[in-house]
């Protein structure tokens, strides 16, 4: 696991966007795994800027989003379909048919989930997965106790996650109980992971992810087994890391060829 601590989330997102731009220069038809939530919004803004000002090209890119609320239509303002459209897709030149998000209106959940897994496989697998992290250490919507080898499936949200995501809903009663999410096993098969975390509310789950034991109780901790996982943190999210000074030292002494 590589831990990169930045003074601000702006700095972290600028690096994250350069990271993705480097991949797209090397592999213009890369497959990206995308995340929602407030955390990656700045990253998307920086990618949009690179598209507009530096010609970053998404024409051949394919994307798979992590998750979606069950029961919400794509047009619902709190749906992840709507989020992605507003915050990213409509601002870059990615063909609509190349973007994939689990179907929140599925009437056959097992078939929808299997088809999602099949599509990821047919696309050649995910080259780079963007992740946020929940306050309880969840990734995607894989809540604590999720099987660490799980695939795309239905999950029931904890009350805490429902409350954390309440600001996105006009009426708290509308927050769905159920979601579709890529599994932890699906995420672990991606070739590279960039996990972003900002603010004091993420300090505890980040410390547990990086320095705690690998446990289904903190689903993100499985990333200790991922061959290429990088954490882009601001100072606050790094606030409880015991070895923060070492991670900074490693970053400062990185060989030039490893820098983005
Ligand atoms: C939701 C999403 C996750 C996201 C998490 C954190 O649960 N399904 O993908 O990482 O929220 O959200 P935020 O970035 O708003 O803190």
Q: What this model shows, in words?
A:
It is built from eight helices and ten strands. By secondary structure, it is an alpha/beta fold. It has a seven-stranded parallel sheet, with helices on both faces. A three-stranded antiparallel sheet has the order 4-8-7. The longest helix has 18 residues, at 9-26. The site of 2-amino-2-deoxy-6-O-phosphono-alpha-D-glucopyranose has 14 residues, from loops. 2-amino-2-deoxy-6-O-phosphono-alpha-D-glucopyranose is lined by residues 35-39, 66-67, 132-134, 140-141, 161, 165.
What does the radius of gyration come to?
A: 17 Å
Structural class determined from secondary elements: alpha/beta
Q: Shape from CA axes?
A: globular
Q: What helical percentage do the residues reach?
A: 25-40%
Main beta sheet: strand number and arrangement?
7 strands, parallel
SS strand fraction: 15-25%
Topology, please?
Blueprint: E1 2-6, H1 9-26, E2 31-34, H2 41-54, E3 62-65, E4 67-69, H3 80-87, E5 99-100, H4 109-122, E6 128-131, E7 153-156, H5 159-164, E8 178-181, H6 184-188, E9 193-197, H7 203-211, E10 229-234, H8 244-252
Parallel strand pairs: 1-10, 2-3, 2-6, 3-5, 6-9, 9-10
Antiparallel strand pairs: 4-8, 7-8
Bound molecules: 2-amino-2-deoxy-6-O-phosphono-alpha-D-glucopyranose.
Summarize the model shown:
This protein is α/β, with parallel strands linked by helices and 260 residues long.
List descriptors:
alpha/beta; 7-stranded parallel β-sheet; 3-stranded antiparallel β-sheet; 8 helices; 10 strands; binds 2-amino-2-deoxy-6-O-phosphono-alpha-D-glucopyranose
């Amino acid at each position: 696991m590589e831990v990169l601590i930045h003074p601000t989330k702006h700095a972290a997102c600028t690096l994250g966007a350069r990271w993705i731009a480097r991949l797209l220069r090397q592999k213009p038809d890369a497959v990206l795994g995308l995340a929602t939530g407030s955390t990656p919004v700045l990253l998307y803004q920086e990618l949009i800027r690179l598209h507009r000002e530096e010609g970053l090209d998404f024409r051949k890119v394919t994307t798979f989003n992590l998750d979606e609320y069950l029961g919400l239509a794509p047009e619902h303002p709190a749906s992840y379909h709507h989020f992605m459209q507003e915050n990213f897709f409509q601002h870059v030149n990615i063909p609509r048919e190349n973007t994939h998000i689990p179907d929140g209106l599925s009437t056959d959940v097992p078939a929808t989930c299997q088809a999602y897994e099949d599509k990821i496989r047919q696309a050649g697998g995910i080259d780079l997965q963007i992740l946020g992290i929940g306050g309880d250490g969840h990734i995607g919507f894989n809540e604590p106790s999720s099987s660490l080898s799980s695939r795309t499936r239905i999950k029931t949200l904890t009350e805490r996650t429902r409350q954390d995501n309440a600001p996105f809903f006009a009426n708290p009663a509308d927050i769905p109980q159920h979601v579709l999410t890529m599994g932890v096993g699906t995420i672990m098969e991606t070739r590279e992971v960039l996990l972003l975390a900002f603010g004091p509310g993420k300090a505890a789950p980040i410390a547990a992810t990086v320095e705690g034991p690998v446990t289904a109780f903190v689903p993100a901790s499985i990333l200790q087994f991922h061959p290429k996982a990088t954490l882009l943190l601001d100072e606050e999210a790094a606030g409880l890391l015991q070895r923060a000074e070492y991670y900074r030292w490693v970053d400062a002494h990185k060989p030039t060829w490893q820098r983005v």
